[in-house]
Structures are given as C-alpha cells and as structure tokens.
Amino acid sequence: MKTVLVASSKGGVGKTTIATHLAAQAALAGESTVLIDADPQGSSTRWAERRAGLDSAVLPLDGSARQRKAWKSIPEDTTRVVVDAAAGAMADDLEAWLEHAEAVVVPVLPSALDIDATVGFLNSLAKAERVRRGQVRVGLVANRLRPWTNASQQAVALLEQWPYPVVAQLRDSQAYVMLVGLGKSLFDYHSAQVRDHQEDWKPLLRWLKK
Length: 210
What we know:
Elements: E1 2-6, H1 15-28, E2 33-37, H2 43-50, E3 59-62, H3 67-72, E4 80-84, H4 95-98, E5 103-108, H5 112-126, H6 129-132, E6 137-145, H7 150-159, E7 166-171, H8 175-182, H9 192-209
Parallel strand pairs: 1-4, 1-5, 2-3, 2-4, 5-6, 6-7
Helix pairs in contact: 1-2
C-alpha cells in the first residue's frame, strides 16, 4: 500500500486539488484508493462523495480528529492512500501520517509571502525522523503558475535552489475549481483541451513511482 501525504502550513495553496487529482488518477489506473481528509473543512470528502457513483470511486475517510483511528479504518485491499492534511499543520501535527507515508507533496504558490511561509514548514519536516533518514521523500509542486510571467519564472528559479526537488509545475486554471466541485479530475477526460494540463502532472506522477 503506497501512501502520499499532501501538506503545507499555508492555506489556499491547492492542497485539496492536488490530493483529489492524485486519488482520481490512482483510481482510474485501477488501484483501490482511499482519500483521508484530515482537513476540518472536509473539501476532499465532499469531492469523493460526488464521485461515489463512478467506477473509479475513491473511499473518503475522516482524519481530521483522530489520525491513528482513521489509519486503522483503511480497508485491507487498499493499494493507494492519499492524505489531504489540515491547512496550517506543521510536521509535529502530521506525525501519524509521516509514520506511513512514502512521499510528501508540498504545494507552493509563486508569491514571496507563500514561499516565505513554506520555509518554516520545510524546516519542521526536515526534523521528522523518517524524513531525516531518507525514508520519506519530499517534493515541491509549484502551483497556479502563469508560465509566461516573470513572477512565476522567478518563483520556480528560487524553488529550484531549495534542497527538495520541484517535482511539478502546474499552471493556473479555473478548470480545477470546476472539476473539484463535480467530483472529477483532469484525468477523467481525454479531450485536447485538457492535454496540456495533464502533461503538467506527468513529472509528479513519475516521481511518485520511484
């Protein structure tokens, strides 16, 4: 069972969008997928409930209160777990998830305030035992980019100097808001309109397979 934790100490960075897309992609690939919603807002849970009628449904579990209880509730046949961590959580708050995760995906927006806010979170992650031992990989996702702007290009250049790799660059699009509201993802579609966006995800998916 492979577990991916999507986390950031900064709210509004696209954590739920990334978690739901990773869960959908795994389910569409035939994996028995669980999405643990550790955020009290419950956005991931509502997404999974809207998806319940699809063949690629994802099982939502509430992880907002008792993390270890949620972990014990995972069905035995599960092959993929995605955890949508609570906004504002630091590494100490994520202890139960870090015990099981193979990878942590950290979304970062291309602004000075968001980048500065992420530094403290990454510093706290670096102190976590399994991260220090190299048992948990940490990857950055530059999110909501406008690749044609200097601000986005400068943000990516800065992130690439950090000790953790930039494993994806996702462009800004209102499509994500609409899809989450429908219980869908980019991976549910095959039109030319979504192909460029799907290409943005390939480096992250390859990184997670390592």
